[in-house]
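Methods — Computational structure assignment.
A single polypeptide chain was analysed. Its primary sequence is given first, followed by the predicted tertiary structure written as structure tokens.
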Amino acid sequence: MKLGRGRGPILLRVFRSIVLLCVTAVSLAANPTGALTDGHVHILSPELIKIWKGLGIPFSRPDEYYSDIDVILRNTAVRRIDLISMAHVFSSEDFGGFKNERELVEKENSFVAAARDKHPQKVRAFCSVDPLREYALAELGRCRTQLKTDGIKLHHNANQVYLTVPEHLEKVKKVFEFAAANKLPILMHFDNSHRRFGKPDIDLLIGSILGDLGPVELRIALFGTSGGFSQRTRGFLNAFIEKLNTDPKLDKHKITFDISAVALDKDSEDIRKLTDDEFAVLARYIRRLGLSRIAFGTDYPLYTPKEYMDILRRRVKLTEREFNLMLKTK
């Protein structure tokens, strides 16, 4: 598979979708949501917010909604959150082409770790890197040994990672080996926006990375694509479910699917909200996957947990038993 017709337009779409998180209005969660864990919560350092504002990107809320861990915890109002670094965005020339890129990456990951350290019982920190950069493994090592981060975030769309390119595959494999050796979970945005993304990428992930790898915890973000519940998402899930049902090499791994930004009840940039029929199809896929393979996440500040739980109950029509089974998935 080739890299497509050019990285620029793809990356611009990626960054528009990323920053949409920053311009979506967030309503305060009125009540705590018990023992719930939100496995997909974003935080941005003041420096990253300043850079985005310098690019002309508007923010609809005061900066603390995106950068202050106390405000984020108040808004999410859950037992625990997985706090996701955005450090991977600094490696794109389309985003800025920073000469001090590595320094910015380190600062962003350190900011996330410091937020975790303020509330260690309520927050897990996920370090983020562009796996294609030569410093990726060194930064992961720093995150693990110095910052004591709790997980790894990969964003194949933002960093235009193609497992069909041998050099990319080898570099991603090294990150997975690091995660397995250090018992760190990976949250992976797998979709890279290529029109042929899907089964070939799944086959390479399983055959060339997971097959011979020691046990690893892999959480696939946004049900495998980039938000919403389109035919592309359904095709991805069909291919992955077939592998889960037929490939015994996967039994040693803990593979779950993060439902964040899937059950959209509002348009999100170029991703439209679901129709009633699509919500019904989503419910069927949730049951086909099995609730024990689905991890709850909101992509905060896209939604608060309270808002997203309401959508899953009211629009997807999960039963309380199903809902509770999903919430138990860590």
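Note: The mean pLDDT is 89.
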